[in-house]
Amino acid sequence: MRRIAGVGTDSNIDLEDAGFEQTLMTVVKKFSEGCISAYSAARTLGVSLQEFLAEFVFNEASLRHLDREEREMLIMNAAEALREIKAGRTIRGFVRECVLTEEQLVIAASTMEEEAAIRLRDAVESLPATSLGIALRQSLSVGYTVPEFVELFIFTKEWQVVAGVDDEAAAALINEAVAALQLAHEYLLSESRFSSLHVREKEIPDRIVSRLSSAIARRRIRDARELITRWDNRHLLASPSQPNAAVLLNLYAQWIDFDSSYLSRVETALVEFRHQPIDGRSTLDSANLDVAEGLVHLHYERYKKAIVHFKYAMKGAHSIKDRDLMATCLYYLSRAYWKLGLYEKALGYAGRAKKRNKILEREAAIEMLEGWLLLLLSHRKEAESRLDHARDVFAKTDDYTNHGNALSFSGRLCKDEEQYDKALDFFEDAVWSYQRADPKHRNIARTYVNMADVCFLHARTLSQDPSCPERVLERRLEAFEYLEAAEEIYNVDRERNYRGLGDLHNLRGLLYAASGEFERAKVEIEKALFFGSQKKDHIVIGKARKNQSIILTAETRGPATSDNDNGQVSNQAILAFATAEEGLRHALQTNNKRLQARCYLSLGHSLLRLNRDYRGAEQCHAAARDCVDPGLSEQSSSQANTKQQSYWQIKFNRLQHAIDLCKGTTAAREYRSAAEN
Q1: How many CB atoms sit inside 10 A of residue 82's CB?
Q2: Boundaries of every domain in the chain
Q3: pLDDT band at 45; cut points 50, 70, 90
Q4: Could you report the per-residue pLDDT of 288-317, keeping only the tens digit for each?
Q5: What does the pLDDT read at residue 630?
Q6: How far apart are CA 509 and CA 547, in angstroms?
Q7: Is residue 264 exposed (0-12), middle (13-18) or buried (19+ Cβ within 10 Å)?
Q8: Rg for the chain, CA atoms, rounded
Q9: CATH 2.60.120.10 fits 209-379, yes or no
Q10: Phi and psi dihedrals of 131, rounded to 5?
């Protein structure tokens, strides 16, 4: 009884509440007498069907002869059977009966390897246990064809990957499922009685849209979740012909920031809207749909496509003078340009969004974005001011995502100040905040990468002290552990996380290089290049090429040419120069001044190794200084700025020292040559 009282995510039942105890006793009595079904009993107690069966039907006391796994399987099968009785055949049951029967699976197993056969069987078991009739009726009511239904809800692209079937086999399965479905009673009944002419669509009241829009904008996450849960009782979110459908879809797309599971659902809903003639849409609907489509591209890291949709949406919002929608469009445009590395443009859009915004909590989100951009543009004092204001606002809300962003921002500031332990504390708090928002939030992975970076930087600082090699090793191992944890999260949905995976492999490559494991370092940098090239990400590619050059230079210390090899240049020196040059070319496509400075320094070192071109190296040295000097001179008295000056000064001095050595060597060589002549 205590277990049953504790289940249910929204249950506030008091175990000592006499009213609940009375309800429990009544339900158990009626169920045992056959007066109510298991479904009704579970709903009355506020638990799932499987939880009810586990507690009152297939409990441990009555099934002592079964182990835990067998009992759980029995409960799952019983629940599925009850669902079929209530709602008809499930999608999984249909596939088992009509498409991939037991006999067909046995035949298939005889022609493939054992592992592949097991994989296919497991994939069949992973198919949805939802009602085939209900899902089919809903799909037909909004214009889906049977083949589209099979591809979107049964043999999806994701399922094909899990099952390990190729395109040809997948096409055959889809055709077989379509043929079987067109003869199934679920389809015949839906086609004759539940077509779009007979199904009454659920209305979307203005009140729901207004309240949900306000809750999301004001970062009242609990209220927004309750509204979404109350509305979201169908597999399909909305159909194009419903009034307010486009506005609601826009709000669902905005909700992806707080619950990533809605991304696939918004994608599915957008497919329905594409069936609708564009001529029949109002300007408001078109703008809202463009925002929704832009947000899907944004979350899949297709930033240029996202920008196109946001600009179309902004144009529509401007034509109907909808200031709130304009503020939303400008905010998302700023985010997209930020991810492209065009920080100055992103900052301009953020400022325009703030001018049109009238909601304090949304202004805090815009200021958080402004703060990040100002920090990246080396305006630290203004960045801290934006952060302080935004953090105060989010502290009064239950927006744990943005609260985590604020904590992560603070950690980044501490990292720049070389307060590494304090930075790790902020990042740990950020992880905890993200987990409160969503246990699988992808910002958790990003924070783990930041924590690994802190450990890497701390280890690099400690390595200058020969008395603490154990501490250096400890920090490096911590960095590897954080990267492993981040990679596990990113790999759940690689398509959305190419930027994160690129940063992860770049950092892991530097960690291996710092430990002298250059071959492993090169492999990691190649992986970073792969992820960067998939999205044409100039920042990830620029970092990877710069790191390649550094690793090649570190691997073969000493001059690239010597008097003994007749001045022949090594292949690695040529490759180091080429990768440094390419890294700089990508960095210059962005406003990332720190990356540009690092690329210039790397190019300077590679020029010295390639052909002792100290004049070219001096030009790189001056260009690198131009990239970082404005930011360093902004607050010369602050501790953080002093630390940054020290960091960059060490790098500049290192290149200058190499230039001076090269000058001296070149002068000596010219003197010897003149003397011989």
Answers
A1: 17
A2: 1-86, 88-200, 209-379, 559-676
A3: confident
A4: 999 999 999 999 999 999 999 999 999 999
A5: 55
A6: 8
A7: middle
A8: 30
A9: no
A10: -65, 125
